[in-house]
Fold each of these.
Amino acid sequence: DGGITQSPKYLFRKEGQNVTLSCEQNLNHDAMYWYRQDPGQGLRLIYYSQIVNDFQKGDIAEGYSVSREKKESFPLTVTSAQKNPTAFYLCASTRTGPGPQHFGDGTRLSIL
Amino acid sequence: GENVEQHPSTLSVQEGDSAVIKCTYSDSASNYFPWYKQELGKRPQLIIDIRSNVGEKKDQRIAVTLNKTAKHFSLHITETQPEDSAVYFCAAADSNYQLIWGAGTKLIIKP
């Protein structure tokens, strides 16, 4: 549904552990995005990519890393440097140019 | 850069009444303005959008108006129903086509 698949739906991280969130789209969109949403809050941009093998930091990139080796995939790694990773993570994609972003169903990350 | 402000943060209306949410933006070059609805625990979903060459757009009970001179746009929901209860986000596209988001409005429909 919506052409964007995020996995897993729920993820638990131990202290000092890196975890990777998956985002795959079959919409042939050029641009992809990662957002973090804390309870009762809005969307904050972590990273975005407009073409393969290129990506830019958003407003809260510290403690996160991404890669864009394929057009359809944009995984997000939450590193141990991110001390407060508990949040709802949303991946989105869009065509080139101004237009709507389509969202995946999200991954809810918690600390064990 | 672009900045988007959204008001109110919470809006409570009686079922059947209308609801209006307002957003202002700072970059006069912005030319795309979507509205999203997010239900609890779900992903944001696009409900309506407008481009800068249009002043108003309507889809059944939902409408969006854009005032480019004043740099503000508004979401109007008429004949509100319980299923309209959600958080609504506005956004504006900046010069890099990134969406700059408002902080959200929690809409509560009272029975």
Note: Chain A touches chain B at residues 2, 31, 41-43, 45, 48, 90, 94, 96-106 (CB under 8 Å).
Amino acid sequence: DAGVIQSPRHEVTEMGQEVTLRCKPISGHDYLFWYRQTMMRGLELLIYFNNNVPIDDSGMPEDRFSAKMPNASFSTLKIQPSEPRDSAVYFCASSLPGQDLTGELFFGEGSRLTVL
Amino acid sequence: GQNIDQPTEMTATEGAIVQINCTYQTSGFNGLFWYQQHAGEAPTFLSYNVLDGLEEKGRFSSFLSRSKGYSYLLLKELQMKDSASYLCAVTDSNYQLIWGAGTKLIIKP
């Protein structure tokens, strides 16, 4: 299996622009997670889906952030408008079916976002 | 509140043994994970403990004491490639995964 695939790997944008990050989970994994990692705050869970349904979005910083999972093989995280404080590495992760939240997470390589 | 504590940084010598400690205070407990993260890369799973005791997997072992809210990751026969951050994470009673800030391990020749 190819693993969790994220794009873009790097994104540099200007404040106020819209940013869309994409994720393809491992086939057959029914949980998908979006994380953000910074030096100051470490790994933060933003939102997670189970069978394409958003379960907990309490970690989404504010209304500027939104996430969708239109089907089992694709998810997006959108920031509109972006701000410099959104600069971070955004990871997507998926886990095996039936593992609920005690299962091993398989992370993508991350999308490094820089907002100028 | 929920809290996970681990040392910020540790240094060890190639070929030696190092123990990375993790203490946690969470609302309930449903398991503890250790992940390894090399600089600029994604975290990768190392171990999972849900019962007290030691789990051994090659050069790496992980120990858990639920009564003490304590775990450690033991790395033996250290190699230069073990230089990385090691993240402790606990699943609480609501199955929320609480992450520690990570321990940066530096291996010296």
Note: The interface with chain A takes residues 30-31, 33, 35, 41-45, 48, 50, 87, 91, 95-97, 99-102 of chain B (CB under 8 Å).
